Automatic annotation (TrEMBL):
GO terms for cellular component: plasma membrane. It catalyses: ATP + protein L-histidine = ADP + protein N-phospho-L-histidine. SMART domains: HATPase_c (SM00387), HisKA (SM00388), PAC (SM00086), PAS (SM00091). It is found in: Cell membrane. It holds the Pfam family MHYT. This is histidine kinase.
């Protein structure tokens, strides 16, 4: 028994090493493409394992040729094919394990083990093709297998481990890995050959050359070289195509890198690529980001359900879009508008994700400011709605919105108001020039302030202190108006009462100083006129004297009213039924009404309405109001007197169908010496207003020209 011949042919050994290196590099190149591509995966995988398996077999085959073994030994073709198949199969298992998506250290150990089996099985079957009895020296074999295993473990770790050739741009890793694997294969065959021994050296040298079988062996070698060359050509062709595709992809990548924040992760969310903009906004270096997941940037702003929904979406192969708040390395927050696109394999499962982001921090800050401003506006609006009457109109004055206070005071519904203009509330009190001045002011972009008398839906009047603010476009033209009003009806009524009282006081002072001085001469004048009448026989002179007496009586009546203002009689209150009082006044004026061709009617809902009042003073008021209404209907018509019980008081209305009172004169009614009658002095209405005010009531006037006038007297049940 002796060792295998150790005389080697250096040329064949060099050829064997070169061919193994080429096939190994080709195999690694194809496996790299396999990890980076989703197309033709099966073809690339088969090409990779075939190239590696044939490289292992070529090393074994040429090593035996280098020993000049086949020149004397009959070779067995089936065992030779089995040697190739075993090498390819074990290589396929090894690389299937290490190229799987879920790579780990255990799989690295398994891959290295199957690579060792590929070398060992190819060597054993190759040796058994010799017509020799071969056995191995275990003392040499075991360390040899461990060295082969360690070499493959190191080379596969370099090639497929974390932050490896697939995830970096270091072009030297693949050649280095190919050299390490080739060295492991060469080392393995020489160590295994060293461990092999033969039983019969005589028979080793006895057999003659079988030229036919040698021809077949060389033919197989030639075919192997052709296959290897074909694999090299296929790898080159695929690389060229991928290079063309990479140029296109690089253009797209360049465009994305210039315009967006880009990151690529694997199926588990581990970052495998970031562009410069990602580094710039996150303030982390590329080395700090690669290998991490996006929890590194988690600001804590979003709830867990937010990210669960994100992963649920992209995990099922759908694109996710949303806005994310991140935190950078320095602790500053930033917002990104994010689109995450999953890349799917043939099974429809994501194998990586690309996240394209845009910095929207300034926009979000602006939105926050807008929200804060909106909150302030809402607070202001709430305060206005609670305290003021608010309306918004467009540039033409059409009402666009009103608040509840506006609806309440106008007694129109919101639907009735929107789409109308403020003429719906026009009371007729203000002149056209008043509104022209208003529109002239706000139309020029200035704020207008003033007091307006409006009319509600039920016909009642109310006063509002108004501020109209124009909202301007860039060209300075208003596009809408905001009207803020306050109800000043009670204040205006108080002012009216105070104004009337001031005038009454002035008249009272005048009466106190003048009445007595006028009354004495009047008495003398009347006495002499009546004396002259006694002796006068001339009818014409008698008529003149009668006129003098009547006018003296008229002047005396005015003086009496002056005296009443200067020293008003004390009101004597008592429970009185107001109905008989009014009926009595109407009966006194029936002849006066017929004289003016006026139909006088009385309407009452109850026969008994007791009021705490001074009967004579109230009768004076009713007499004055009804008489005025009759005289305000010169062409005939109707005067209707109505009384009804309302809101713990009595309301009496005197309604005529006369000529009416113009709006500009209406507000002067009740002032001293102001009257719409030719022969009036205005003191009657002034006294009437004061009497009713002394009873705790009030008189209001409503009128439309050529439609008539309504005087309303409101008296409380208890004065």
């Amino acid at each position: 028994m002796g060792t295998i011949i150790e005389s080697y042919s250096p040329i064949l050994i060099v050829i064997a090493v070169m061919l193994t290196l080429m096939t190994t590099y080709t195999s690694l190149d194809l496996f790299t493409l396999l990890r980076n591509s989703e197309k033709n995966n099966r073809f690339i995988f088969l090409g990779g394992i075939s190239s590696m398996g044939i490289g292992i077999w070529v090393m074994n085959f040429l090593t035996m040729l280098a020993m000049d073994t086949y020149s004397i030994v009959g070779n067995q073709i089936p065992l030779t094919l089995l040697s190739i198949i075993l090498g390819v199969s074990f290589t396929g298992i090894a690389f299937y394990v290490v190229t799987n998506e879920s790579f780990g250290f255990v799989k690295l150990l398994l891959g290295s083990f199957f690579m060792m089996l590929a070398v060992f099985s190819t060597h054993v079957t190759g040796m058994y093709t010799l017509s020799l009895g071969i056995q191995y020296n275990l003392i040499i074999l075991v360390p040899s297998l461990l060295l082969i295993y360690g070499s493959f473990l190191f080379s596969l770790w370099v090639l497929f481990s974390y932050r490896n050739i697939i995830h970096t741009s270091n072009v030297w890793l693949k050649p280095i890995s190919a050299i390490i694997i080739t060295a492991a294969i060469v080392e393995g065959y020489f160590l295994l050959t060293k461990a092999a021994q033969s039983f019969d050296s005589a028979s080793f040298n006895a057999n003659s050359t079988q030229s036919q079988e040698q021809f077949v062996i060389y033919l197989v070698l030639f075919i192997t070289i052709l296959i290897t060359a074909g694999l090299l050509w296929s790898s080159t062709l695929i690389s060229n195509r991928l290079e063309t595709s990479d140029t296109y992809l690089n253009d797209i990548k360049f465009a994305l890198d210039e315009s967006a924040i880009v990151a690529i992760t694997d199926a588990k969310g581990i970052i495998t690529y970031v562009n410069d903009k990602f580094i710039e906004i996150s303030k982390y270096s590329r080395e700090e980001l690669i290998g991490q997941d996006h929890s590194l940037l988690n600001s804590g702003y979003h709830p867990r359900e937010f990210f669960k929904d994100l992963w649920r979406t992209i995990g099922t192969g759908h694109v996710w879009k949303g806005e994310v708040k991140n935190i950078d390395k320095e602790g500053s927050y930033y917002w990104v508008d994010t689109t995450i696109v999953p890349f799917l394999n043939k099974k429809g499962k994501p194998y990586q994700y690309i996240a394209i982001r845009n910095d929207i921090t300034k926009r979000k800050e602006a939105e926050t400011q807008v929200l804060d401003t909106m909150k302030d506006i809402q607070d202001i609006k709430f305060a206005l709605d609670e305290s003021s009457i608010v309306a918004i109109t467009n540039e033409k004055g059409t009402i666009m919105n009103v608040n509840d206070n506006f609806v309440q005071i106008s007694k129109y519904s919101r639907d009735e108001l929107i789409g109308e203009d403020h003429r719906i509330l026009n009371s007729g009190y203000h002149s056209k020039e008043f509104f022209k001045n208003l529109w002239r002011t706000i139309g020029q972009g200035y704020v207008w302030k003033g007091e307006i008398r409006n009319r509600a839906k039920d016909g009642t009047y109310y006063w509002v202190d108004t501020t109209i603010v124009p909202f301007l476009k860039e060209n300075g033209k208003p596009y809408q108006y905001l009207a803020i009003r306050s109800d000043i009806t009670e204040r205006k009524k108080t002012e009216e009462v105070l104004h009337r009282q001031d005038k009454l006081a002035a008249v009272g002072q005048l009466a106190a100083g003048v009445a007595h001085e006028i009354r004495n001469p009047l008495t003398s004048m009347r006495g002499y006129a009546e004396f002259l009448q006694l002796d006068e026989t001339d009818e014409e002179r008698q008529e003149y004297l009668s006129i003098i007496v009547e006018e003296i009586e008229r002047v005396n009546a005015i003086v009496e009213e002056f005296m009443l203002l200067s020293k008003p009689k004390e009101i004597e209150l008592g429970k009185k039924n107001i109905i008989p009082i009014v009926r009595n006044v109407i009966s006194l004026l029936e002849f006066h009404a017929k004289k003016h061709k006026v139909q006088l009617t009385f309407e009452n809902s109850m026969d008994v309405m007791e009021v705490n009042c001074d009967e004579d003073r109230v009768k004076q008021v009713f007499l004055n109001l009804i008489k005025n209404s009759i005289e305000a209907t010169p062409k005939g018509g109707t005067v209707t007197v109505s009384i009804q019980l309302e809101n713990e008081g009595v309301t009496m209305k005197v309604i005529d169908t006369g000529v009416g009172i113009p709006p500009d004169k209406l507000k002067k009614i009740g002032e001293p010496f102001y009257t719409t009658k030719k022969n009036g002095n205005g003191l009657g209405l002034m006294v009437s207003f004061k009497i009713i005010e002394d009873h705790g009531g009030k008189i209001t006037v409503e009128s439309e020209v050529q439609q008539g006038t309504t005087f309303t007297v409101q008296l409380p049940l208890e004065s």
